[in-house]
Amino acid sequence: MSASAVREEDIARYLREHPEFFGAHPELLASITMPHPHGGRAISLHERQLEVLREKNRGMERKLAELIRVAQENDAIGDKLLKWTRQLLLTTDAERLPQAVIDGMHALFSVPHVALRLWGLRESFRGLPFASPVAVDAIALANSMKQPYCGPNADFHAATWLPDGGAATRSIALLPLRRGADPDAFGLLVLGSADPSRFEMNMGTAYLERIAELASAALSRLIE
């Protein structure tokens, strides 16, 4: 370590340990100047302190604005969840519940591509379109999922249930449906979008998990 570096450290330590120094020598505050952080003229220590405070304030304002934005988005999603839940509760005809789930994804959450498959249904519901045969691999995938999958459409079999066989889907979310703590799924809700960034692998899944729980609770009326 150079002598100048040691001397700078000693000076910095001394000033930290003796904050009364500038109080005893106020003339130094007015006489000390330093380069402006963005170039140009030299500024006094007072001005530099004010500039540092302004920069900190701007940083805090940006963080506050981001927190407000996230809070507003969360409030909006919470409101959509409430409206969707109300629609499901008001659907008295069990046969209409699968379509009510899909309609809510379209209308409230603006998901362009939605598909739903259910298995293990009661006999009276096995003729519904949502009870079409499901490949064993798709059922095994749903059973293995502990939380929703989000990411690119990596040729999942479930993507073929989407409109046009999923040809226009670039990002996808797979939501396994379970009855309570049952480890085995009884269905799979598939959300897709042509926007590759709509469902990304690093996105949070908390709200998708709530959607899966609510859909599971509603659709469990159709299960044996």
Kindly list the characteristics that best describe this protein.
about 45% helix; Beta-Lactamase; about 220 residues; two-stranded antiparallel sheet; alpha+beta
Mean pLDDT: 88
How many DSSP-defined strands? Answer: 6
Q: Given the helix and strand composition, which structural class is it?
A: alpha+beta
CATH architecture title of the largest domain: 2-Layer Sandwich
| Helix proportion | 40-55%
Strand content: 5-15%
**Might you state the CATH topology name of the largest domain?**
Beta-Lactamase
Please report the number of helical segments.
Answer: 7
Distance between the termini: 76 Å
The largest sheet has its strands arranged as: 3-6-5-4
Q: List unreliable stretches of 5+ residues.
A: none
Outline the structure in words.
The structure is a single chain. The protein has 224 residues and is an alpha+beta fold. It has two domains: 21-75; 91-222, GAF domain (Beta-Lactamase, 2-Layer Sandwich), CATH 3.30.450.40. Helix content is 47%, strand content 13%. It is built from seven helices and six strands; from the N terminus they run αααββααβαβββα. The strands form two sheets. Strands 3-6-5-4 form a four-stranded antiparallel sheet, with helices on both faces. Helix 4 runs parallel beside helix 7. The protein is elongated.
